């Protein structure tokens, strides 16, 4: 059966969004330079009150590229970027692209063994990090030693007054970087680059060249390097901008970290290619984001469910005029309906009309590949594919397409799909498969359905599915039911080893009122599930916690709960 039987059914819900887009055959640097050419004096980024115009951004990129070239960085080389979302990480990303080099972006709080793995996998010989994070990078022991360590400081781009404030609050606690012949300081490099800036020349790179290496979450073994091309990023940026109507008058809070496809592809590239303003957020706290919304008046907000849950609970955010918000999107994890309702009610109460719309994506396709249309909402849907993206549901681990509304594996095809996994042809062949239609399809490893109108629905990650007494249990489905109970603030469902059932369904719950963490509350929540779910999907026990562990991008870390769940005493256990 053809993957697209006639016109895609979802196209009639596009509204004003074009059915197809024009993707220029350029590098990312050339795309940003083109934006600067039409918006030289517009603000490109805002970092804790310090701003840069597009003219200044391009000049900074060129200066750093000149300095990096003098250090020997050239086309095809890799540079490790271990930084929060700040001006230096933005400038370094595009400067590497200017030279045709490949940035490998990692979480700045990675441990020395993790950094060792990333360096060995990427082969990077130059690394950029903060002075406060030098210790972990120095402790890494890659097979090929690092030749150059670029050290940046957060105060490099702060006003004099904020530099003093940073010093008093955090700076004086940062250990001095010891003498190290490999170390070069950001401020010195930028000064050297200023003196040696050369005329703007073509990079010689191609739109098909790899533009970045991002890393998977490591669901099985060590994280895999994901190779994403200039074309992948440019396509993602244009698709997101078209879907969200992002224009040069828009401003977005860049809350999602730059080492993640969501942060890099949506919060940064999409906004800068559109000529908008990126409000850089180096670390998330609901209070600081609330203050930024109040002061900076962003028009677009994107994030994960836990971000919106935290904002809905924050008193400062609840007292802020939210009429500035034009579009809010949620991705990277399942959005519980109560979280959506609480956030939307708060926005409405504070003068806004925006709805929190869900999307779906994965790093192997940069980030988002589909989202809810601005003018059409379907309960529980993750939306419809972006322009030029195709999606379908296949029989698990097969290329055969399922019938409408039949569950199977979500597969996507289009210009944002990765070129492959770094030095892992076996994993690449498993994920990227050519179907009968001649197209290369990314098999996501996620289960879902598609209705007759082309709206998609996420069910569960194949690797997270629980097998209990021979039946498939989908944690997201059980969590959605738990979130419906008024006492539940957060919930995560996992499978625990069990001799009789193979896996036992267990729920971890955070209550709005911790004082109610009692056996009778556990019994009430289990009864609530049994009224709404098939018996084998219901939790056999519930563990109450003050909070749930989070991954580095703010998602609930179900793996950590599996590891610790069997050793932590339950706050209350219902009789069975």
Give a verbal description of the structure.
- This protein is of the alpha/beta class and 576 residues long.
- The protein has three domains: 28-283, Rossmann fold, CATH 3.40.50.980; 355-461, Luciferase, domain 3 (Roll); 469-565, 2-Layer Sandwich (GMP Synthetase, Chain A, domain 3), CATH 3.30.300.
- Strand 1 and strand 2 (50-53) form a beta hairpin.
- Helix 2 (54-70) packs across helix 7 (186-196).
- The longest helix has 17 residues, at 54-70.
- The protein starts with 27 loop residues before the first helix and ends in an 11-residue tail after the last helix.
- Residues 1-6 and 567-576 have low confidence and may be disordered.
What keywords describe this structure?
576 residues, alpha/beta, Rossmann fold, Luciferase, domain 3, GMP Synthetase, Chain A, domain 3, 3 domains, 5-stranded parallel sheet, 5-stranded mixed sheet, globular, disordered N terminus, disordered C terminus
């Amino acid at each position: 059966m053809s993957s697209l039987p006639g016109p895609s059914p979802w196209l009639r819900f596009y509204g004003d969004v074009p059915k197809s887009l024009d993707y220029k055959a350029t590098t990312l640097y050339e795309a940003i330079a083109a934006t600067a050419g039409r918006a030289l004096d517009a603000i490109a980024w805002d970092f804790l009150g310090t701003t840069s115009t597009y003219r200044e951004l391009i000049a900074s990129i060129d200066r750093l590229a000149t300095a990096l070239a003098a250090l020997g960085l050239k086309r095809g080389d890799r540079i490790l970027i271990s930084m929060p979302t700040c001006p230096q990480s933005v400038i370094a990303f595009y400067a590497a692209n200017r030279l045709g080099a490949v940035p490998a972006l990692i979480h700045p709080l990675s441990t020395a063994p993790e950094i060792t793995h990333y360096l060995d996998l990427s082969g990077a010989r130059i690394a950029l990090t903060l002075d406060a994070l030098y210790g972990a990078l120095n402790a890494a022991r890659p097979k090929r030693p690092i030749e150059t360590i670029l050290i940046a400081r957060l105060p490099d781009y702060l006003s004099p007054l904020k530099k003093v404030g940073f010093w008093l609050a955090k700076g004086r606690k940062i250990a001095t970087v010891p003498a190290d012949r490999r170390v070069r300081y950001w401020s010195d490099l930028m000064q050297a680059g200023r003196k040696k800036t050369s005329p703007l020349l073509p990079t010689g790179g191609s739109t098909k060249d790899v533009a970045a290496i991002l890393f998977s979450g490591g669901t099985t073994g060590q994280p895999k390097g994901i190779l994403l091309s200039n074309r992948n990023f440019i396509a993602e940026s244009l698709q997101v901008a078209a879907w969200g109507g992002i224009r040069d008058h828009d401003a977005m809070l860049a809350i999602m970290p730059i080492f993640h496809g969501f942060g890099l592809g949506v919060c940064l590239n999409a906004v800068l290619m559109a000529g908008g303003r990126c409000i850089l957020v180096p670390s998330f706290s609901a209070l600081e984001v609330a203050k930024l919304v109040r002061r900076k008046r962003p028009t677009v907000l994107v994030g994960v469910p836990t971000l919106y849950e935290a904002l809905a609970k924050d008193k400062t955010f609840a007292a802020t005029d939210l009429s500035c918000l034009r579009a809010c999107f949620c991705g990277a994890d399942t959005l519980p309906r109560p979280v959506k309702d609480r956030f939307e009610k708060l926005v409405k109460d504070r003068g806004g009309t925006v709805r929190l719309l869900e999307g779906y994506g994965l790093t192997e396709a940069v980030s988002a590949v589909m989202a809810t249309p601005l003018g059409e909402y379907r309960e529980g849907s993750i939306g419809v594919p972006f322009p030029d993206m195709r999606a379908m549901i296949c029989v698990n681990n097969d290329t055969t397409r399922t019938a409408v509304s039949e569950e199977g594996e979500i597969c996507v095809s289009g210009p944002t799909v990765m070129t492959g996994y770094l030095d892992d042809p076996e994993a690449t062949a498993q994920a990227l498969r050519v179907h009968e239609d001649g197209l290369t399809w990314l098999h996501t490893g996620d289960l879902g359905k598609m209705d007759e109108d082309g709206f998609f629905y996420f069910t569960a990650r194949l690797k997270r599915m629980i097998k209990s007494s021979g039946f498939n249990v989908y944690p997201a489905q059980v969590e959605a039911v738990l979130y419906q109970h008024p006492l539940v603030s957060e919930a995560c469902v996992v499978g625990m080893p069990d001799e009789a059932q193979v896996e036992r369904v267990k729920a971890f719950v955070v209550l709005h009122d911790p004082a109610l963490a009692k056996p009778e509350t556990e019994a009430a929540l289990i009864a609530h599930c049994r009224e709404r779910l098939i018996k084998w999907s219901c939790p056999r026990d519930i563990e109450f916690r003050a909070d749930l562990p989070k991954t580095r991008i703010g998602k609930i870390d179900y793996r950590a709960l599996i590891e610790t769940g069997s050793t932590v005493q339950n706050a209350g256990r219902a009789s069975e």
